[in-house]
Structure formats: C-alpha cells, structure tokens
C-alpha cells in the first residue's frame, strides 16, 4: 500500500496549465467521427471534462474505445470533430499536444533487450521527470536494472504505468491500465489516480473491469449494429491485396 | 521544447546503439553479408586478378547497397510492433526528427561498419591502394544517402503487408544515382581520370536527400500509427 512518498509525488504532478481562459472546461471533445475502411467506428462522440475529472470508456469489443484514446492522444486524425484543450484546438499542433498527454497503449512498448531504467530514459528526457521516483511509486525499483525480457506481464504493465507517471502530463489516456495487475498494484493505481486528479489532472481510461476511480463518469460507446458488420465476400481475393 | 530536441535525438540514438550492442549478432549480420557476398565474386568469376581489379568498384558498391538494405525492414518495424512508435511520437519530437534520429542510428550501426569492412574487401579484390581514398570517400557519402533513402522507404512501407518485399523495390531504383556516381568515381580514379566531379555529384545528392528524406519519412510514420 502507498507509503509516505506519495505526497511529494502528488506535488510533482502539478499539472494545471498556467493559464486557463475563463469559461472553458479543460478538455472538450466535440463530434469526433472516425472511419475505419468503410465502417464508421466512432459516430459524433462528444464529452466535456473539467480539471480533476475521470472518465471511463466502456463498450463491447470493437466499439472504438482504443481508437478514441488514440484520437485524443493526437495519434489518429479523426475524419470529423474537434478536441479542445482550454478552448484551443489541441490537434492543430500534435507535437505540442503530445506534451499534455501521457498515453498508455494496450502494448507496454518496452524494448526487451534494455533494462527497465533504460526503457524509461527517453520518456524521462522528454518530460524532465525522475524515473527512480516513478519506479518507486509502482514498486518496481528493485527491478530497475533487470532487462525487460525477464519481467512478468504484470511487471511490464507496471513499468508502462511508471512511464505514464514520468510524462508529468495533465491528461492521462489509459488503454486497459489494469491488464495483468495484481490486487496490491490495483490499490496503488487507485492512490496514483487520486493524486493525479487532486493535482488537477484528467484520467480517461478504457476498461472491462472495475477500476479504482471513485465518482468517475462513464461514457458508453455503442457497439456495432448487426447490420453494420460487413459480410465476408465470397472468394475474397486476399492475394491481390498488397 | 526547442531546447529538448537535441537531448531527445541523442536519447533515441543512445537507445538504438545500446540495442544494437545487445543484439550484436543482428548488427554484424549486414557486415558479414557484405564480406561474404563480395567473397563470392572471385569464386564465380574466376581468380583472374586483372578482371577482379576491373570489377572491384562495382562489386564493392553493389554489395554495400544490398547489405545496407538488410536491417531496414526492422528499423521502424520493431518500433511499430511493440508500440514504441506511439511512445516515440508522444515525446513531442516532430516525426521527421524521429525519423532523422533513426536514420542516423541506421548509419552508425550499418553504414559505418560497412565503411570499415569496405577497405579489406577492396584489397582482397585487388583494388590498388591509390584509389582507396576515393572508395572510402564515395562510400561515406553513399552509405549516408542509403540510410536516408532507406529510412524514408522503410517508413513509407511501414504497416503494409509484404513491406519487406516492397522495400528493396522502392529503395534500389532511388539509390541508382549514388551507385552510378560512386562507381564512376572509382573507375575514373583507376584509369587516372579526374574523379572530383563524380564525388561532387554524390555530395549534391546527399545534400538534397538530407532535408527531403526525413520530411517524407515523418509523414510516413504519422500515417503508420493511424
């Protein structure tokens, strides 16, 4: 369970932007639409979050939860809609927007040949954060000098979460953060979420299991209608596709 | 942010060099291929010293070109597969500079070792030591061009099915000017003609590729993560 090192951590994630124009919520998502091939994956999704809010994205497999997170991270360009950060178009300069976001994908993005500490170096260089402090917050300090290939799935997930902390960004976008975590780490995660929200950060997470995010709002993405599912063509000419 | 750009590029380079050292066998693969392919020519063409000396420039250049292709497939492929590409883009570094850093890493781990191995291979083929300076200068420019164009092509085919097959088809035609001028400079040096203009053209090619290739590669990386 959390030790006394969480207070300074909460301070470190002091994230509220220096200037918030009055009358604007921190994050506004308007009418996001995304096509994947011929299929409309996200249909005019919209919500508004204030500093300290948390949002859970739910929905069946294939409902576009991960795609929405990637849109919010600036990794995927939506076909329609806007993402506003403090009232300013966030996706206009995606490299700048990256500085506001800590993104946890469904993959842990660890290089197996590098040690944990070496894996976090790049993120530390980008944010100026302290990797040791972040590893300590997720109880993986003891593994810092082990190559990532020797870690278990849960330990790798914790390392990826340490990178989220390390980004020191106000907007956390987490794709199934609880994947492979044990009960203790879930408790730890709850404390980290609370500290982040206390400091004015926003947490948006996709999940299929309950997450330790008290009074989080839920945004359910509708799944596919049966009629929308493309029927497989007969004699699909797969070999002609390059 | 502007202050952080050099630090981030160095961090990517450090990471890639560290990975290259940890996976030493993969890194050496391209150089060993270069030496082996070069060593096959005397076996196939016969041991005539005159013939080999005459063909040495072409052999060294073609083998270097093909060897530099080998690790291109994994240059961005491994980053895309394990999700690292997302995290690279989330550092806030412009995608073209991420691509440039990866291209420099490719040159350091492939181009530079090829350059070191080119001398011994050329001597083995009987190339006169007087033209060694021209060979190494030409290959220095040539391997840099290969890393730039190869990196661009690797990012363009990223995520495509059979990208590995497409890659040489894209890279080889684009690098033919480098091959022509590089081998021509060596030829000129061996026959006692002036080799300066050929190397200057090679330099001009590099000067054009240096800003253009990372820009195109950056767009390719953005498209690949979509």
TrEMBL record, chain B:
Membrane topology classification: Multi-pass membrane protein
InterPro entries referenced in this protein's UniProt entry, alphabetically: Cyt_c_biogenesis_CcmB (IPR003544), Cyt_c_CcmB_bac (IPR026031)
Transmembrane segments: 27-46, 58-77, 97-121, 133-159, 165-189, 201-225
Coiled coil region boundaries: none
GO CC aspect terms: plasma membrane
Pfam family, one: CcmB
A GO MF label: heme transmembrane transporter activity
Localization terms from the record: Cell inner membrane
GO BP: any one term: cytochrome complex assembly
Keywords: Cell inner membrane, Cell membrane, Cytochrome c-type biogenesis, Membrane, Transmembrane, Transmembrane helix, Transport
Domain of life: Bacteria
Purpose: Required for the export of heme to the periplasm for the biogenesis of c-type cytochromes.
PANTHER family: CYTOCHROME C BIOGENESIS B-RELATED, HEME EXPORTER PROTEIN B
Homology family: Belongs to the CcmB/CycW/HelB family.
Name the record gives this protein: Heme exporter protein B
Organism: Komagataeibacter xylinus
